[in-house]
Amino acid sequence: MSHDLGIKKGDLVRVVAGRDKGAEGKVIGVRREQRRVVVEGVNRVKRHTRIDQQGGRSGTSGGIITQEAPIHVSNVMLLVEVDGDKVPTRVGYRRDEVSKARPDGTTYSAHRSVRVAKRTGEEI
After folding, report:
1. What is the pTM of this model?
2. Which long-range contacts (C-beta less than 8 Å, at least 24 apart) are formed by 84-89?
């Protein structure tokens, strides 16, 4: 299943369902195979880690660490700026015709897929 999720690393999103509903944050990771995203400060879980002695001085120290766990992409919406406000929007796609140049200087017409905010119609 290789469809695009519509959300990329670095996007600002709002959680629309689940325990952290209403929270906003930046996407810090995308897991396309699982259709999940990791959002900064959202869905934080505690992980128990053991002390790793292998690395010599750089061995990890054990204990309980708090980190973000992935959240399903259906539970987040992309935020776009409208009149200074951040509003959630769905993501659409548009194919734009662009002209590209070959190494020998000649140009040709090609298509480029761009993400579009459904709410405003603007390119993201």
Report:
1. 0.80
2. 86/12, 86/14, 86/24, 87/119, 88/14, 88/16, 88/119, 89/117, 89/118, 89/119, 89/120
